[in-house]
Amino acid sequence: MANEPMSIVRNGRVLDIHGHRAPPADILIAGDTIAEVGAAGLAAPDDAVLIDASERLIHPGLINAHTHGHGNLSKGMGDRWTLELLLTAAPWISGNRAAEDKYLSTYIGALEMLLKGCTACYDLTVEFPQPTSEGLGACAKAYADAGLRAVVAPMVANLSFYEAIPGLIDILPAGLQKDVERLKLAPYEASIAAMRQVLSDWHFDREFVRPAVAPTIPHHCSDEFMLACAKLAREFGVGLHTHVQESKAQVIVGLKKYGKTPTAHLQDLGLIGPDFVAAHGVWLDADDIQRLADHGASVAHNPGSNMLLGNGIAAVRTMLDRKLNVGIGTDGASCCDNQNMYESLRVAAYGANAKGPDTDRWLRSEEILAAATVGSARALGFADKLGRIAKGYKADLVFLDLAHLNWIPCNDPTNQLVHTEDGSAVNSVMVGGKMRVANRRLIGVDLSALGKRAEATRERLAALNAGNKALFERLQGLVNGFCPGLAKTPYHIDHFAGAHHAH
Ligand SMILES: [Zn+2]
User: Fold this and answer.
1) What are phi and psi for residue 398, nearest 5 degrees?
2) Which DSSP string corresponds to 155-221?
3) How far is the CA of 354 from the centre of ligand 1 (A)?
4) What is the 189 CA–ligand 1 centroid distance (Å)?
5) How many angstroms is it from 39 CA to the middle of ligand 1?
6) pLDDT digits (tens, 9 = 90+) for 123-146
7) Single pTM value for the model
8) Is residue 238 a contact partner of residue 274, using CB atoms and an 8 Å limit?
9) CA of 300 to the centre of ligand 1 (A)
10) What distances in angstroms separate CA 413 from CA 10, 61, 345, one per listed residue?
């Protein structure tokens, strides 16, 4: 401890989320951790590096509870896509990636998050037909190089989208049935063995980049596979993350396949625990929410993606009322199209409000900010280390410019962070005591060179995936006729009564 480099942040105003205020305070940092927070003039060793935070509002780094690093090379490729069309497009928009492409895609997203006030994320990254140590290593290295804290989980399945949705394959013409055959995934034993290798070989500092396990969507995985994923995650003490009841089609498939909601099924399998994150949860009924709450699990709420893909608006008020931990995420840039957590904060508020004028059901800005900091931290498995500016927590800090128009004037910092800030007032970002953004620029990053590299990669991948794009174009009409049809199955959720009714 004594040899750790010290720094002292002076003259800034530190956000008190629940107090809706930002009183002046100094922050003493030892190595990567906050050693003390105190009134202006806090004692510090003579050799502590002074960080002048005059005209700065300091808030805990936002934590992105759900993203997909592979999506950053695919931003803007689709429009008017449902989740099911996005899954149909996956071989086109994220296929044929080499390890360096995986690195590049992840790195671009990491930089965007940093520049927009986010200091940690939970990344579910895909490799086809199964995860590899090389691919996962490339993603982890991208975060380590960018300086963004991350949990990196290989997103795995043993059933293709066409195998996972009952009846879908049957509506495809014989030629297309054959074409989607080649999208078959590896047998689950192979993916488990590959993940075991990844978890055993992990050589990154787990305080900075740690692994997890992510069976992608329950009905895309056999029960044996889901159970093996949970066993593996628990053997290695890492997180377990899956997309749960994201679209209405998914809950209808779950009811058909399991005779109960996917959440009820996951509970019966023993998957739900404090290490479990349910992404989205738009179609959770109140019983499902209670199940997740009872087991100390978390929901990653991705309001932008949920609206963009037409999945709806998650019942976050009910989740919070039931004491279910909620984190906030952007989701991947292929279904939210940027990695701006400030937007997620605001859209989380708008979504709740858009349901109707009953303000008791709306979210308070302090609840939204708490979700995007301590809530997400718990979802990442970093509870008590991230999400607060307090002694013993990691020094992951965002310095907003109070001379930016977003903050002129500063009436209520909590409300303004949710309803006004858009990322443009971010002046500096510190992760683990190290500045990664200063004066609105990423330190040590040549964006022009990165842009050239990304453009060359984009062209190369477009050529490699031309066949996959053509396949998507032949499939999209059929999938888009079938899946919204599934979603028209009457299914009503009443979050006040806690019952669901399928007819
Ligand atoms: Zn996702």
Assistant:
1) -115, 135
2) EE-SS-HHHHSTTTGGGS-HHHHHHHHTTPPPPHHHHHHHHHHHHHH--S-TTTEEEEEEE--GGGS
3) 23
4) 23
5) 41
6) 999 998 999 999 999 999 999 999
7) 0.97
8) no
9) 9
10) 19, 15, 14
